[in-house]
Design a protein that fits this description.
It is a single chain. The chain has about 140 residues and is α+β, with helices and mostly antiparallel strands. The protein is built from three helices and six strands, in the order E-E-H-H-E-E-E-E-H. The chain has a six-stranded antiparallel sheet with strand order 1-2-4-5-6-3. It is elongated.
Length: about 140
C-alpha cells in the first residue's frame, strides 16, 4: 500500500503501465480505459485496508458506482507509466465520494470524481460497514 501526504491530504497511490491493448489505433490510451485504471486503484485501496468484495458481500454489502465524472487533460501513450492518486473526499451514510487523478510524470492526464454507494444484495442503499468506514478514516486522517 502506498499512501503519502500531498498538500495536507493523504492519497492512495496505484501505478499503471500502459500496454498496447490499452491504446486506440493512434497509440493513445482509449478513453474508456481510464475508468478501468481508476476502478483498479479504488479496488486496491479497499484491499490495502484488509477488505475485499467477498468479505463485504458476507456483510450483505456491495460497493457500486453511482456517479462518475471525468475530465481528460492530456493523452497518455503506449508504454507510458501513470500514477493514479485516490483521495477519499467524504464517507457518510451509504455514500463514499473519491477524487482520482492520473499523472504522467507530474502532468495531470485525467481527473475524476466518483460517488460510490453501498447497497445490500437487493440493491437497496445501506450504511457503509462500520469497520470499512473506520479503516478509511484512520488511513486518511
Amino acid at each position: 500500500m502506498m499512501v503519502f501526504m500531498d498538500k495536507g491530504k493523504k492519497e492512495f497511490i496505484y501505478k499503471v503501465k500502459i500496454y498496447y491493448e490499452d491504446t486506440d489505433a493512434g497509440g493513445i490510451v482509449y478513453y474508456a480505459n481510464y475508468l478501468k485504471f481508476f476502478e483498479r486503484a479504488r479496488t486496491e485501496l479497499i484491499y490495502a485496508l484488509g477488505f475485499n468484495h467477498k468479505n463485504l458481500k458476507e456483510k450483505d454489502a456491495q460497493i457500486i458506482v453511482r456517479k462518475f465524472s471525468i475530465t481528460y487533460k492530456k493523452p497518455a501513450f503506449f508504454e507510458d507509466e501513470l500514477i493514479v492518486k485516490t483521495f477519499v473526499e467524504e464517507i457518510k451514510g451509504a455514500r463514499i465520494v473519491m477524487s482520482q487523478t492520473a499523472l504522467k510524470n507530474d502532468d495531470v492526464v485525467t481527473e475524476a470524481t466518483v460517488e460510490l454507494a453501498c447497497v445490500d444484495q437487493s440493491g437497496k442503499p445501506k450504511q457503509v460497514p462500520e469497520e470499512l468506514k473506520k479503516s478509511i478514516e484512520k488511513l486518511l486522517n
